[in-house]
Amino acid sequence: MLTSAEAKPCLDQAPIGAKTNEMGCFPAFFGGLMTAYGGNDLFEVVTVDAGMVSRANADLIHAANKGYVMALKDGQPELLAEAQRLLGKNGKPDFETGVEVYQGRRVRRRLFRTTEMAGYHGWSHLRQIWRVEKETRDVDGNLVEHENRYFLTNLTPGRLTAAQILDVVRGHWGIENDCFWTLDTQWGEDAVPWCSQGIAVEVLSWLRLMAYNLLQLARRTHLRLRLPNGDRQDPPPWRRIFQWVRQAWRRPLVEAIPVYG
After folding, report:
1. In angstroms, rounded to a whole number, what is the distance separating the alpha carbons of residues 32 and 40?
2. What pTM, to 2 d.p., does this model score?
């Protein structure tokens, strides 16, 4: 997915075989990505979730002269423990966002970062660790949720501002929130097996992604009025998008043209 784009389009996908996993499939998929888009400056940074994090995959990205931002979780316990030791204490953040109102709750994000793990245990290209803290409170100021996410990166300090780092991380979360959750919950991708044999499963998935990209582009960019302060309205809910599509289906393709004798 192109996470820096407002519409979060899905550019490619690949089936994962029964005898492998996301981490094992990554080299071949990244090779295809580089063949299609890597020969120029169309993209600079690759973000991956914890299921694809390994030193070998990081080596591959770095060798291609691309940046990586990798979610750090329990799959890399030694790295995670050291990151928590260095960044887990409450201190002054490098950057803090203003309060954002989302679904009636108030959300604030804080960034903490360190370069003390540069080159840690064979990760020769590792330059920074980030901790992104998300704090959610209700309208009365009561704490509802508090979470921390850790990230590994080979990006040189100063390449991104603190605000841009949070944009990159938030864009990465869009993979789940914009695409996966939408296809699963709103589109009912797994609710009914329209087909279950051979290449038809993958072909149907491609058709669904093409439809998602078109409607997501309309939803996130073209169907949002600009407010007086210059911001745009929130994207319309998917339920409304589906209603508009059904209405378009019901209209005749060609309006009747009166003929006069």
Report:
1. 14
2. 0.87
